[in-house]
Each structure stands twice: as C-alpha cells, then as structure tokens.
C-alpha cells in the first residue's frame, strides 16, 4: 500500500467548520490498528503458523484418552429370607436402596478386587523417541510374583527385553556385588529369583510369548495396588440412566481402551459376586443359628430314640388301645405347639444376646421369618434398625467429621435397640402365658394317662419325649433345608444391559479445538502487540489524534519531503509537497479574509517539528503568487534560516531591535522573486526583551509599506516565551505538529493556551506525514471543495482567491 501523503485529501475539513476535541475521545484508534495489521500481515501469518505448529505438536504427541462405557441393571430383590430387611429402596423397590449402590460401586474393596484379578499392579510401556506409551495385552503369558509373602517393588521400574521363550534381560537393575550396589543389566531365566531394588521377584511364563514381543525393549513398572485402586476410584463414573430407573451407566476414560474394557468386565463380575455373597449372608447366618440349635438337641433325641427301641425290645406291649391312643394324639398336638414356643424362646435368647453385643454387625442378624417365627412387630423393628444402620454407614462414608445428623441417627438406633429388647421381654411374658396354658393341658392329659396300665404309661411317656424332640429336630431341619435351598438358588440382581465397549474416538486431545485455540492465540499475540503499541504510543499520528487532543482547527497537512533542501516549493514546484503548501496558502485566506496586509506566525511545541521548513516554503508559495513577502527569522537563540538561502547572518533582527541598524540595512534579497529575508542576526543576551520593545511593532508597520505578507519563524512555544510576544503581532498563528514526533501532551498544552486566550487566531498544520491509510485520515481523494484548481504549463494563472499560481 502506498504511504505517500495526498496533500489534497478531503480528510482536512473546511476550516470554516468547527471540530470538537472531545468527540470520539478514545485511547485506541482501532482503524489504525487494523491498518497496521493489514500492512504487517506477514507477522500475523507467521505467528499463526507458529501457533498452529505448536497445536500440531500437542495433538501429535499427547496421550490419547478413549471413553469406555457399560450399562447394568439392578433387578428388584425378591428374596424372602431376610433380604427385604437389608434394603429399603426409596425409588421403586421396597427391599433395596439403590442410592446405596453408588457407594458400593465406588468402594475401595470392590475396585481393588478387580485390580488384583487383572494384575494391573504390573504394567509395560514401550519407549518412543519422544514419549512412552503403555503396552497392554490381556493374553500376555508372563506373570510377576513376589517371593513368598513379600511385596513387589512398588513404585520402581526397570527395562526388560524378552529374548526367547526361556530367557529375558533386565536393564537398569541394581546389582549387588561384593557388598556394593551398581546399576547394570543381566539375563535371567523364567522361574529364577530376580532381585529388583532390594525385592526378590519371580517371572513366570505360562504360555508362548508372541514373536512380535520378543527382542523389544519395554519398561516394566510396578504400581502400588492402593495407588491404582485410587486412580480407578476417581475416574470410574456411575450415573442413573434416568430418574426412577434402576439402570446404571458406567464409564471411564483411559489411554488403552482394551485395558479399560477388561476392567469394566471384571468389575461387573466382582460386583455380581459381591451381590450374591451379600444376599447369601442372611441365609448363612440362619443356617449357622439352626446348626447350633440342632447340635444342642441331637444328643437328647438320640438318647430317647435308644430308650424307645430298648423298651420295644423288652416289652411285648407296644400298641395302644383306643383310650391310650386318644391321649397320646392329644399330647402330641399339645407338644407340637410347645415346639413353636421352644423355637421362639431360643430365637429371642439369641436376638437379645446379639443386640447387646456392640461388635455385632446388623446386616448379619438372623430374621424371625428365617426360623419360622411370624412376628410382624419384631420383624418391622429389625427392618427399621437395619435401615438406620445403612444410613449411618452412608453418612460415615460421606463425612468423616462430626455430623449432628449422624449423632442423631446413632441415638435413634440405640433407642430402637432398647425398644426391641423391651419388646422381646414383653413377648417372652406373653409366650410364658401361652406356655403355661399348654402345660395345663399337658397336666390334664397326664392325669388321664395315669389311669392307664403301667406299661402303656411308660410307653406313651417315652414316645412323647421322643416325638417332642423329633418334631423340634424335624422343624429345624426343614428350616435349614429352606435356607440352604435359598442360598444355593441365589442369583445376582446385577445384570449387564450393555457390555463394556469403546464409545467413540479419543476425547483428548481435542485436535480441532486445539487448532482453533492456538490459531486464536496466534492471532491475538500480534494483534495485541499492535494494540499495546497503539496504547502506549504518545505521539501524534493522525488528524484524528489532533482532534481528540484539542479544539484548535487543523488548517492542512504537509507530506514527507524526500529532498534535503528546504526550498522544495522553489526546487520542485510540481511536487505533492509544493501543492500542499499552495493548499495551505488558500486555507489561510479563510482566517484572514478582508485583510490586504497579513502577518503569519509559525511556531511549535518543541524543536524539530518543521517550523523553518514550513516558514520557508509558505513564504515561497506566497512570493510565487506575485505578492511581496518578507520572511523574518525571529528565533534569535538558534538562528539558521539564512543557510537555506545561502545568505549570511552578520546582521539581522537583533541589530534592528537593538537600534544598531535600520530596516533597509538588515533585509536581504533571496534568489526567489518577491521574497526577502530578515534573518535573526547575532545572538543577543536578551531576545525576549528585544521582542517586547515598541520598535518591533514599528518595524512591522514600516515593512507593510513594502510587503504584502510577513512570515515570522519563532522559537518553540514550550521552551521560551518569544512566541507569546510575537503572537500579538500576527494575524494568524500556525502551530506545527509533526507525525510520529510531536507528543500528544504538547497538543493538549497548546489547547490549554488557546482555551485560556493566551494565543488567539491559531490553527494546526500537520507536518511530515509519511503514514497514510485507515486510522491516519489520508488517501481519500483530491480537492477540498473550495472551488479552485491548478494547471501546469507556461505562464501564471489566478486561483479562486486572486493569488497567482506558478506553473
């Protein structure tokens, strides 16, 4: 893009129109930033390519993580042997609390059992040039075991190469020789005792190592089971498929999908086994309770059985007549009721002892239904006690700190224990009343029995004792058989709905997202750099910057000159810079319209902003229009304007103001027609005081008799007060602002002088414009709309204001 400044840009507004310094006052010119971005597009492209390269490296060498999912269903529990008192599902099943299953699934023992089953404590890695990746083969025949009861060297690793089916080599192995340890490598055979970092392990080969795994270097790493279990506890996710559903969705992510699939399969198997064991726990406790009772009565039953057989051998009378048979049958019915009371007595004794022992686990209690006792009150209270026990365990898992709700639950559980013990005492009293009624009926029948002959009495008594214990034994054996059948027929409530499988491609790294993120970073860095440059650049760069800093109007703009000679209007009359000075000459007419004789003062904030250059060329363009022009070098501290005209500074303004010479003696004629020079002259000790003398005004009045225009080149306004003194003589003051040179603070300071009335009739000339484009306010076409034009060729021509224009 061409940065050449266009001197006729319409960007410089009609000086008759006001501007505001407050409109659009912002720190950053985003149009200018955009222009810089477009101009230096290659920087943006380079940083974007570098950022995309970083994204490629990350995508290429990041470990890919794959998602693995499975679904299981927890069926409704239909067990009657105490199971309904172990679970109380608030969702859909009255016998099972599915909320608790979340804690069971994430429990350390369950996950650890799957980890140990799969031998995840030993892992292999293939070493690459940049990263190592895990090698997992579920059918790999090599197994590592510690010697005897010792542990594997958890947290350690070593290099390994399988040489053949019988030998392997270990690298980076700690070898002990003559009491000293050193790192080295050594070949071992399968079955040898291998020392690894102070531990002794044995490598077993239970099959054939694949040919592709031989003679390759692997890193074998020994992982602590607790650490691996903790990792899987963290990454295993379990969520209900939907509210009210008994289907659980299991998922976990890992770098080796086959390994995660095997884990989920084994985990589900262990979960099913845990469920079966948990359901069989009640049956096992019931069988144990019944076995204890059977052991207590088996000897007595055997004793009465022998007495009955002995009686039959020694006596001929073993049959009962009608009366004896009636009494015997009645006694047997009464004693069958006594069997029930005896079982109740034994169960209540067991339950009282169980509840009083705080070390007993509530999920191991034998329920009354399992031994044939239909006691709804005790059963419901036990069910509530078991539910409280489950809730307490859940609170303990969630919150290790003291919890007031947990304490309330414990107190409620203790109160319920007391209530159950109290109910047992009441039930025993009721049972005692019923037993006493049975005993009264027994005594009545026994009195009737005494009326029978002696042998029949003895036979009936022996048979009664035997039948009573036989009935009790048979009842208990029946209940034991029922519990054993229930245990043998138990199936898991956990059923696989969707087996473990890979659920799509890798979830990390997210290649597209990484490319997008780094592309944005690659764009943000250079753009941010340009914004920061713009934010911290305190130099005036555009007309808009001037308008933001001041309410002083901008009269025009001068492009960058390529020649070292300051007489560019004279040397290059057709150049763009020369045209911009002609435009400046026309614009000045708006500020001094109606005056024939005019004084223009050129000043700036600091040196180096182009005052001398502007003064010379403005005077030149006025002289070339055919008007007599006097150029006064009023910078008596640093006189230099005479050099550009190849004139001398032996005498000048300082001599005139000090009364040492007359006007005619100090004015020099230049090579430019109609242009004369009054240089600064020798440097005086008091320039400001000289300018303040009335002779300065008198000299200007005298000069107007000869000249149409007087152009005064003054010192910088921020350095000395000379410009303030001279401004009262000027019809218009031109304040110079140089692109990328003048500080914004200098323009703000000039605006303050203007608003306070210290300098009047002032406008700003934007000088040395090199940058053009959006944000700089240039390059939008020719012409100001003032109704004038320029022609080139021989001769002279009047413009729209009566000035003669040089061709």
Task: Please tell me about this protein's structure.
The two termini are 30 Å apart. It is elongated, with a radius of gyration of 56 Å. The protein has 4 domains: 30-62 and 512-536, no CATH class; 66-276, no CATH class; 279-498, no CATH class; 543-806, 3-Layer(aba) Sandwich (Rossmann fold), CATH 3.40.50. The model is unreliable at 1-25, 78-95 and 779-807 (pLDDT under 50). The chain has 21 helices and 23 strands. It is an alpha/beta fold and 807 residues long. The longest helix is centred in the middle third of the chain and has 58 residues, at 257-314. The strands form 5 sheets. An 8-stranded mixed β-sheet has the order 14-21-20-15-19-16-18-17, sandwiched between helices. Helix 4 (108-118) crosses helix 6 (257-314). Its EC number is 2.7.10.2. InterPro entries: AAA_dom, Bact_polysacc_biosynth/exp, GNVR, P-loop_NTPase, Wzc-like_C. Belongs to the etk/wzc family. Belongs to the CpsD/CapB family. Keywords: ATP-binding, Kinase, Membrane, Nucleotide-binding, Transferase, Transmembrane, Transmembrane helix, Tyrosine-protein kinase. GO terms for molecular function: ATP binding; identical protein binding; non-membrane spanning protein tyrosine kinase activity.
């Amino acid at each position: 893009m061409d940065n050449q400044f266009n001197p006729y840009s319409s960007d410089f507004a009609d000086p008759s129109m006001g501007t505001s310094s407050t409109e659009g006052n912002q720190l950053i010119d985003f149009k200018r930033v955009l222009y810089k971005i477009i101009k230096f597009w290659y920087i943006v492209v380079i940083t974007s390519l570098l950022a995309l390269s970083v994204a490629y490296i990350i995508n290429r060498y990041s470990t890919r993580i794959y998602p693995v999912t499975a679904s299981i269903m927890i069926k409704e529990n239909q067990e009657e042997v105490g199971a309904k008192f172990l679970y109380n599902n608030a969702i859909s099943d009255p016998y099972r609390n599915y909320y608790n299953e979340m804690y069971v699934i994430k429990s350390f023992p369950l996950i650890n059992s799957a980890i140990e089953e799969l031998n995840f404590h030993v892992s292999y890695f293939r070493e690459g040039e940049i990263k190592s990746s895990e090698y997992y083969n579920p059918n790999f025949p090599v197994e590592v075991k510690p010697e005897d009861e010792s542990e594997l060297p958890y947290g350690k690793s070593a290099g390994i190469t399988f040489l053949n089916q019988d030998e392997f080599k270990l690298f980076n192995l700690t070898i002990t020789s003559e009491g000293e340890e050193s790192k080295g490598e050594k070949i071992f055979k399968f079955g040898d005792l291998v020392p690894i970092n102070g531990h002794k392990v044995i490598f077993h080969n239970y099959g054939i190592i694949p040919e592709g795994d031989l003679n390759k270097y692997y890193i074998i790493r020994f992982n602590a089971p607790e650490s691996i279990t903790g990792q899987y506890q963290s990454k295993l996710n379990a969520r209900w498929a939907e509210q009210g559903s008994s289907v659980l969705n299991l998922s976990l992510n890992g770098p080796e999908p086959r390994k995660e699939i095997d884990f989920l399969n084994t985990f589900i198997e262990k979960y099913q086994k845990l469920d079966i064991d948990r359901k069989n726990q009640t049956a096992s406790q019931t069988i144990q309770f019944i076995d204890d009772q059977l052991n207590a009565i088996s000897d007595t039953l055997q004793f009465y059985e022998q007495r009955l057989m002995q009686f039959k051998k020694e006596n001929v009378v073993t049959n009962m007549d009608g009366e004896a048979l009636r009494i015997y049958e009645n006694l047997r019915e009464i004693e069958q009721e006594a069997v029930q009371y005896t079982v109740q007595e034994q169960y209540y004794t067991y339950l009282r002892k169980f509840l009083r022992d705080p070390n007993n686990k509530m999920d191991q209690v034998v329920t009354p239904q399992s031994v044939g006792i239909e006691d709804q009150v005790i059963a419901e209270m036990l069910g509530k006690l078991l539910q409280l026990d489950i809730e307490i365990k859940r609170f303990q898992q969630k919150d290790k700190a003291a919890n007031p709700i947990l304490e309330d639950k414990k107190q409620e559980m203790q109160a319920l224990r007391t209530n159950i013990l109290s109910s047992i005492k009441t039930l025993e009293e009721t049972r005692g009343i019923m037993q006493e009624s049975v005993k009264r009926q027994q005594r009545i029948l026994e009195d009737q029995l005494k009326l029978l002959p002696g042998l029949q009495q003895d036979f009936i008594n022996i048979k009664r004792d035997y039948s009573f214990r036989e009935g009790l034994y048979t009842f208990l054996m029946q209940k034991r058989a029922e519990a054993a059948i229930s245990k043998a027929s138990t199936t898991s409530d956990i059923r696989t709905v969707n087996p473990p499988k890979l659920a799509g491609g890798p979830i990390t790294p997210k290649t597209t997202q990484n490319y997008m993120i780094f592309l944005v970073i690659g764009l943000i860095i250079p753009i941010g750099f340009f914004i920061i440059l713009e934010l911290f650049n305190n130099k005036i760069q555009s007309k808009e910057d001037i308008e933001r800093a001041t309410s002083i109007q901008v009269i025009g703009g001068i492009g960058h000159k390529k020649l070292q000679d300051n007489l560019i209007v004279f040397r290059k009359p057709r150049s763009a810079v020369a045209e911009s000075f002609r435009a400046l000459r026309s614009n000045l007419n708006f500020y001094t319209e109606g005056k024939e004789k005019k004084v223009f003062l050129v000043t700036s904030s600091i040196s180096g902003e182009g005052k001398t250059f502007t003064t010379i060329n403005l005077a030149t363009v006025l002289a070339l229009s055919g008007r007599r022009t006097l150029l006064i070098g009023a910078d008596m501290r640093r006189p230099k304007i005479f050099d550009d005209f190849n004139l001398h500074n032996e005498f000048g303004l300082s001599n005139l103001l000090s009364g040492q010479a007359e006007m005619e003696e100090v004015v020099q004629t230049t090579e430019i027609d109609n242009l004369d020079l009054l240089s600064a002259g020798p440097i005086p000790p008091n320039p400001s005081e000289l300018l303040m003398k009335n002779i300065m005004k008198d000299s200007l009045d005298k000069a107007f008799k000869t000249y149409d225009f007087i152009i005064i080149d003054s010192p910088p306004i921020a350095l000395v007060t000379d410009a303030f003194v001279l401004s009262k003589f000027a019809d218009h003051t031109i304040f110079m602002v140089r692109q990328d040179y003048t500080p914004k603070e200098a323009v703000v300071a000039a605006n303050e002088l203007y608003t306070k009335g210290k300098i009047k009739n002032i406008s700003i000339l934007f000088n040395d414009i090199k940058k053009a484009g959006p944000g700089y306010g240039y390059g939008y076409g020719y012409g100001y709309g003032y109704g004038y034009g320029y022609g080139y060729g021989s001769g002279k021509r009047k413009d729209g204001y009566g000035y003669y224009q040089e061709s």
